[in-house]
Structure formats: C-alpha cells, structure tokens
Predict the 3D structure of the following.
Amino acid sequence: MDELKSQLLKKISELVIQGNYKLMTDVIKDALNSKISSREILDSGLLKGMEVVGTKFRDGIIFLPEVLMSAKTFKTAMSIIEPLLMQDFSFNQSQGKILLGTVKGDIHDIGKNLVGVMLKGNGFSVVDIGVDASTEKFVDGIERENPDIVGLSAMLTTTMQSMQKTVQVLREKYQNKIIIVGGAPVSQNFADEIGADGYAKNAIEAVELCKRLLTT
Amino acid sequence: MHFLSKQKVLVFDGAMGTMIQNLVKQEYICPEELNLTHPEIILKIHQEYIKAGSDIIQTNTFGANYLRLKRFGLQEKTYEINSKAVEIARKVSEGKIVAASIGPLGELIEPYGEVSKDEAFNSFYEQAKGLSEVDFLNVETIQSLDEAEIIIKALRSRLSLPISVTVTFQKTPRGYFTMMGESIEDFVNRVSEWDVQMIGTNCGEGFNQSLEIICEIKNLTNLPLVAKPNAGLPQFKDGKTIYTETPEFIKPLIEKFFNNCVKILGGCCGTTPEHIRTIKKIANKINYDG
C-alpha cells in the first residue's frame, strides 16, 4: 500500500515536470481512490514537481514553454483537489493574500499570470486586477481585498516609470503594506530605488519572496 | 539592397519609446497613436537622429499590429497609424533610409497562449498594408522564432521589401537563449529557411552582451548583421529612470561591433541622439579613412 502511494505521488510529480496535463486527471483520481489525501498530493506530488521545474528553469535547462505546460498540468490537478483542500482546516489558513496587477500603460501578463499560478499552488490566495491597471485600480483592489502583499508587474522599459509612480502613491497611502515588483526590465536595484519591499527574478523566486516577507 | 552597398557600415537610429517618454507629458498612452495625434513629436525625434548622424531612421510602428492596437481600442486604425508613421519618417528622411519597425504581439500564441496562429498572421498582415513605402522591414525584439516565422510570412504575403530580423536573447548559465528557449544556432538555422536579408540582435542587457551575441552569430552566417543594443538595463535615481551605458561607456565597444561583421549599428531602449553621434564618429572613420 505504501509503495503504491509513493509510486503514485512520484508519478504526479513526474507529470508536472513533463507538463503532461492529459494524464494528470486519471492519476489524481487513482491517488484519491488510493486514500492519498489532497494535502499529500499537493505537498509530496505537485509542489515537489514544481520545485524541480523551478530549478531547471533557473539553471537554463528549460524555458517558458516547458514552464507553461507544467503550470497547466499543475492547474489541471488543482482543479480536482482544490475543493478537497478547502475542507482541510490547515490549508484553509491561507498563507496570505496577494493582489497582482500589470501597471498602467503595459498590456503584458505572461509573467504575472505565471506568478499567480505558482502562488496559488503554494497556498496563497491570489487576486488579479489585470493589465494596464491604474493607481486607482490598485487602490480600489487594496480597499476591497485588503491583501497582505501587492505585486506590480511591468514588461516594458517605458512603463517602469508607471511602476515607480504607482509604488510611490501606494507607499504614501499605505505605509505598512508590503509591495513587491517584477518584470523583464526590473532589477533588485530598481526595486530598492523606487521603495518596493521586494523583487523576484521569476515566478519561483516570487513564491519564496512572499513566504519570506510574511514570516519576518 | 542597393542601400547596403553605399557604405561599409551604416548607422541606425536610437530608441523611439524612451525618447517619446521624455517628450510627452501625458502619461502611459499607446505610443503609436502619436502618429495621428502628435505627429510633430515623432517628426522631432526622427530629425534629432538624422542630425546626430543616423543613415537609417525607423518608423514609430513597433506595436502597431492589429492585436496590440486592439488592446488600446485602436485596431480599426491599424492602416492609418502605420501609413502615417511612414509618411512622417519620409517627410524628414532627406534621402536617408527608412525602415519599418515591427515588434512582436506581446502575447503568447497557441498552444502556450490564447492567440491562434491565424489571428497572429492576420494581425501582421493588417500592419503590412500600411508599410509599403519603406526601404526595408525591421522585425525586432523577437523572443519566439515561431512567432517570427508567422510575422515574416504575413509581411511577405503583401510586400517584397528586404527584411531584417533581430532577436532578443537572455543570458542563462548555459549561454544565450530566447524567452522560448531557442539558441543562437537555432535562430540562424531557422532564418536560413526564410526569405530574410539581414539578421542580428536588439534590446537586451546592454552593449557588452550584444557584442557577445554578435560574435556568436557571425560564425554561423554570411548575412549582413544588425545590432541595436539597449543602453544597459534601466535604473532609477533621483526620481528618474536612467540608463547606465552612456555614450562615453559605449565608445570603446563600437568599433568591435563593426570589426565583427556588423553592417548596421544603432541603439534600442535608453539610447539617445548622443549615443548615435558617438557611433557616427566611429562609423565615419571606418567609411572614409579605413
């Protein structure tokens, strides 16, 4: 029984790494039938797989297409186990709420969406206010959702100023709100200069950053 | 391509987007809409680059494909925005070469994203309609070779002008790759299947990295090379976005580009007429003294 269990969990993490979303539904059902808890599926199957994906991505072994397929496979599994996870008291204690948006003038959302998927998979609740989001839209979102962290994304060198202005306004209005930034032209240096609390190079690092910021 | 044989090396222009940003007080607009609403601003940028020594100026059409304009509600003006951009550039070109800037969709194409291949094709087919009066088509900031292939097919369906394709590579622990994981070698191999006359690299992390990429490309192809590097990655100091690679910084690197088969050198994000002036001085030396 235990061997079957570990085999199935291994299979789940392999499917995530391969980005094989087509087989995932059946394997998750097998796992649930074999009395593996949704929590175990998440922690010892799905997240373990995503961790490998993250490392391979960081090391330049795989790229965006592979990560996107892995994220899709991850989401396929999550759509089945999410209702079960919600019944799990310890999981229901969300790791924290993150509000995400792409700043005004910028219409790019590939990176932001990936960050959202990874955060959700790691137990955060995520609110996405979309692209081309004005400062007012961020403020509305913060008032409505009261997130623990606000994440801003920018893809263009020409919209970094928009990011800076949004951070400035949010900083004045919400002294204690944690603000993080990311996107192709963004760097740690830029994040520091504009007064953001954190910067992550990619979606994997974004999860680590949010965890770190909420435990310190 | 008679314009390539005119001189040993040619000077492209510098950034359009970051220049617009410095000139336009109104914030966060669709930059290509300025072709219709404030042509004088685009005209002024072209003039400054010509004054600085650009042999080639580029139209303000980087994001003027149908789908990208649609995100600003301007899709019905695709033809108008493109043809007006060419008209503005031609007005001040005084015999200089005019290139059309064609950037990517900014969205992922199926199976990774929502945009179908047909939609992507049609988006650039619509853009091409307004670009018939330029000297060549500059497909730039490419991060997916599959997308580049679609763009080139769409352009070729309407226009028989020379095409240049420049790719943005990222440095990884295993070398240079596109966002989609394609290597420099993949790029050169794929291009050989297309009807393309010039290749190279643009945008990216700065002149040093761009030079490294060029040195790899030149070993794999005999096509004339084009480089338009960023002035480094943007930083933020004293309330302003600044680029660290000043004209002074890039000066010692310019000759190395030309020595490594680059036929056309200019600049991308963060470069200014001052950068172009610096490039021109060295280009002049090569064209007239050497």
Chain B is about 45% helix and 20% strand. The mean pLDDT of chain B is 94.
